[in-house]
């Protein structure tokens, strides 16, 4: 038995990048093949779970008819705006909460309270506040991301070794210098990874955001198809969201590996 195989199946073993990609593709194709066989055998009513081939046909038809690309771009734009707002607000607030105990004592109960609120339950109040325009959709996406991200930033900043701070103080660094030159730089690798995770969370709120008097976006496409029991189109829309999420996730992973080559690569 060759050594790479043994290393791969060892506890927390190593696996090459190429092997990881091949295993991932193989597992995905195996799931799709099993799904297709189950559909061919008639074990599942296609009204409830269409086959991968039927979903692929619907996706191709919807793409040719212009239902996918334009709506995907609209959804992507909403996600990027909401996520950028969340990150721009959560990072400085999280750093302040980690650095100054009174700030943490004041804000943590509020953040903890709001992050447990179900975002769909706040749809009516968001319509009252912002109407039925883009502001409501952006707000709902922001709401589902911001409060989770704040605590992740706090946790990342708290993990910076205290020795780094003490050494900086010994050398005469001021609080702002410690925050920017020590805490920020030390926590940045974990922060980028957490941004990748929370971007995925932001996508999970897309359907909730785009059912609010919307006439565009992938959430609208999925919700509209649901009304007519067009399950294949629903699954096609879900597939596109998953594909965009997978691509964005891999791009951020690649960026992480490139920026922080001194760390163990993220698999």
TrEMBL record:
Keyword Transport included in the entry's annotation: yes
Topology relative to the membrane: Multi-pass membrane protein
Keyword Membrane: yes
Main location: membrane
ABC transmembrane type-1 domain boundaries: 72-252
Subcellular location: Cell membrane
Source species, domain of life: Bacteria
Alphabetized UniProt keyword annotations: Cell membrane, Membrane, Transmembrane, Transmembrane helix, Transport
UniProt GO cellular component terms: plasma membrane
CDD domains: TM_PBP2
Transmembrane feature ranges: 21-38, 79-101, 113-132, 138-154, 195-214, 234-252
Pfam families in UniProt: BPD_transp_1
Biological process according to GO: transmembrane transport
Family indicated by similarity: Belongs to the binding-protein-dependent transport system permease family.
Name used for this protein in its record: NitT/TauT family transport system permease protein
Organism, scientific name: Paraburkholderia caballeronis
């Amino acid at each position: 038995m060759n050594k790479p195989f043994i290393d791969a199946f060892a506890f927390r073993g190593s696996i090459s990048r190429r092997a990881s990609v091949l295993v991932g593709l193989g597992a995905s194709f195996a799931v799709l093949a099993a799904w297709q066989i189950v559909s061919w055998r008639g074990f599942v009513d296609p009204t409830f779970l269409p086959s991968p081939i039927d979903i692929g046909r619907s996706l191709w038809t919807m793409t040719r008819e212009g239902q996918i690309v334009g709506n995907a771009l609209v959804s992507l734009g909403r996600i990027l705006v909401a996520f950028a707002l969340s990150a721009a607000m959560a990072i400085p607030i999280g750093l302040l909460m980690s650095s100054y105990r009174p700030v943490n004592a004041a804000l943590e109960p509020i953040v903890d309270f709001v992050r447990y609120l179900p975002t769909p339950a706040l749809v009516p109040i968001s319509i009252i506040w912002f109407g039925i325009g883009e502001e409501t959709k952006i707000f709902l996406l922001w709401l589902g991301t911001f409060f989770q991200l704040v605590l992740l930033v706090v946790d990342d900043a708290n993990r910076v070794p205290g020795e780094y701070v003490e050494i900086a103080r010994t050398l005469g660094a001021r609080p702002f210098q410690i925050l920017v030159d020590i805490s920020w730089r030390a926590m940045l690798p974990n922060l980028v990874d957490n941004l990748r995770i929370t971007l995925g969370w932001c996508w999970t709120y897309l359907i909730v955001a785009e059912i609010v008097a919307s006439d565009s976006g992938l959430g609208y496409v999925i919700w509209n198809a649901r009304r007519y029991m067009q399950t294949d189109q629903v699954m096609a829309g879900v597939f596109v969201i998953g594909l965009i999420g997978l691509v964005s996730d891999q791009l951020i992973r690649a960026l992480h590996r490139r920026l922080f080559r001194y760390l163990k690569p993220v698999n």
